[in-house]
Automatic annotation (TrEMBL):
This is Reverse transcriptase domain-containing protein. InterPro entries: Retrovirus_Pol_polyprotein (IPR050951), RT_dom (IPR000477). It comes from Manduca sexta (Tobacco hawkmoth). It comes from the Eukaryota. Residues 60-211 form the Reverse transcriptase domain. Signal peptide: none annotated.
Length: 253
């Protein structure tokens, strides 16, 4: 199953020159070659599309190559072609459950293979030449909806599964769902980060809330963030400020 990117009607290719990185050339080249060797990138000679790379530093101080799709691809991407799950719907489905799992699928985002057109759209331009990603990358505006679409197809037909949370009204109910989900992910070669997953939990923290068989309550940090938020001074800030209140009202009324 390969991820696809949908463009807006009338979209035309954009080829952006590479950003200058005079002091990091050797490090960038080393990382590019490593990504090419791992099959994450594929070197190409020509593309009508090209986006520049930018650099970030990981927690371990190592270099991370990111792509500035804001100046190219994101301008013409259709970001509304697949709906993302609503937080209030997720909470409603989790209500009443007594056993939970939370799966870490962060790495799975970049495990999704791209079709040929998406690879060309996501071509990157570097001082070392042009490369095409073979997998979905962060920074693409429609990435979350593309990922959600593929994961929904992979997990289609399975009960007690919502996004990355597996629930059960009983231990047997939960265990049966957990096994089916893991088997389905394995059949599509989608890997989870076991070190960050939570299994057989009577209580989980998810989307700023504590969830258990007694119900759903906001985390103290969530409440504090709302009460200490600065007074909004624009319509955009007001919309962001009211967002958490809307969620709390929908969940607790």
């Amino acid at each position: 199953m390969k991820a696809q990117l949908k463009l807006k009607e009338g979209a035309t290719p954009t080829f952006h020159k590479a950003y200058t990185m005079p002091y990091k050339k050797e490090e960038v080249e080393k990382e590019l070659l490593s990504m090419e060797k791992s099959g994450i990138l594929q070197k190409v000679q020509h593309s009508e599309w090209a986006s520049p790379i930018v650099l970030a530093q990981r927690n371990d101080k190592k270099l991370r190559i990111c792509v500035d799709y804001k100046v190219t691809l994101n301008k013409v991407l259709n970001t509304d072609h697949y709906p993302l799950p609503l937080s209030e719907d997720i909470f409603t489905e989790l209500t009443g459950s007594s056993v939970f799992s939370v799966l870490d699928l962060t790495g799975a985002y970049q495990q999704l293979l791209l079709d040929d057109k998406a690879r060309e759209y996501m071509t990157i331009n570097t001082h070392h030449g042009l490369f095409q990603p073979t997998r979905l990358q962060f920074g693409v505006s429609s990435g979350p909806s593309v990922f959600q679409c593929v994961m929904d197809q992979i997990l289609s037909g399975l009960n007690n599964v919502n996004d990355v949370v597996i629930k059960g009204y009983s231990l047997y109910d939960y265990y049966e769902s957990l096994v089916k989900v893991l088997e389905r992910l394995k059949s599509y070669n989608v890997k989870v980060n076991l070190e960050k997953c939570q299994f057989f939990c009577e209580e989980i923290r998810f989307l700023g809330h504590v969830i258990n068989k007694e119900g759903i309550q906001p985390l103290p940090d969530t409440v504090e963030a709302i009460t200490k938020a600065p007074t909004p001074t624009s319509v955009k800030q007001l919309q962001a400020y009211l967002g958490p209140f809307k969620l709390l009202w929908q969940v607790y009324t």
